[in-house]
Amino acid sequence: MKTRKLSILWIAFLGTHSCIEEVDINTDLEPAVALKDILVVEATLTDRLEFQNVLLSKPSPLGADTVRIEEQNARVVVLEESSGVSHTFSEAAPGTYRSDKAFAANLGGSYTLRITLSNGREYESNKEQLPGTSVIDEIYADRILSSTGVDGVGIFVDGSSPDASFRNYKYTYEETYKIIAPNWTPFEFEVLNDGSEPGSVPAVQLIERPQEEQVCYNTVRSNAVILSEGTNLTNGQSVGNLVRFTSRDNPIISHRYSILVRQYLQTPEAHSFYRSLKDFSSSDNIFNQVQPGLLQGNIRPVAGGDSYVLGYFEVSSVSESRLFFDYVDFFPGDPLPPYFDGLNCERFIAPLLGDPARDGPVPPNVTCGQGLLDLLALEEIEYYLENDPPGECQGPYFVTSRACGDCTALGSNEVPEFWTE
Predict the structure, then answer these.
(1) Which of 40-49, 184-193, 228-237 has the lowest average pLDDT?
(2) Which of 137, 187, 202 is nearest to 381 (CA)?
């Protein structure tokens, strides 16, 4: 029981953190304490002038719908020890605390994270400093085979730290990809009569689409622990760090793809923590460990007692770089990957409209399935083609799945500011 309850904690931490030599593990947790008194802290203070964020949560019980419970109504402060300046944070969303003002960590400064929960419990981190400067020397994509032999594209980063003797990095990314609806047409349905009035006949007409629904974009943030695994060179570089692998069958690279990678320079202690966390949580038998315990980071309860904290307050230099590529750059002449969610966009149906004058014949004792108006109400279909004349159990229009004909089912029709063709 103790083991299975504690294992939820690792998932809760990994599910929201995108970012680890030996690390102490505390296995002396009583089952009654393991969930309700564990605080999960995710906090990285960067050297970029920006609004900094701290995430607070607790692991949810086994079997719950969510793997994290946001810790709300806390007081969060980052103290700049060298200057005495306190940077206060406010709760921007449940469990997400954002600095009230944009600020950046400075070389030579010491920073401490202090947290007071709504129940009065207090937590404090060790004093941390910037370990040096993070530099992305190059970001590039190569067609490779994964460790399991899958053909695809790997995103690699070469990094360096000119003022640090170590080259430990963690990475996060935001990937943005173009979506082109394969069955898009310039027209969509407008319902003129839903047939709800006695004696009325259902009726629709085709109108021009009022907005862009053929080409869209979607952005997804990383949610895994990504650490430097490249080769350290004598010139101070760490090269060949694989940040992202995408199978050639993944629809997100079907057209144009972009990835923004952030590289964080870590202290050896921070890297050890995340390495241990990653190694532990990626174990095949995570739910069957005898005593997984808790990794000891650099945050602790001020008063001690039966309260535990999982997390690490990092002060890190960060650099970022963006890369674009097209599917044809790596797979010229090859068919595109299957469409999203396994949708078969080559399948079309012609549901009955409900107007005998426009529908095809309905054989006796036959159920023809959902009608056109019902599917429109569920937002499941888009117009594709006229059906003239309709066959048995057919209506006057062929339709396609909504996502095949309307890209806004999968993304936004607003072109990102950074996008280039």
Answers:
(1) 228-237
(2) 187
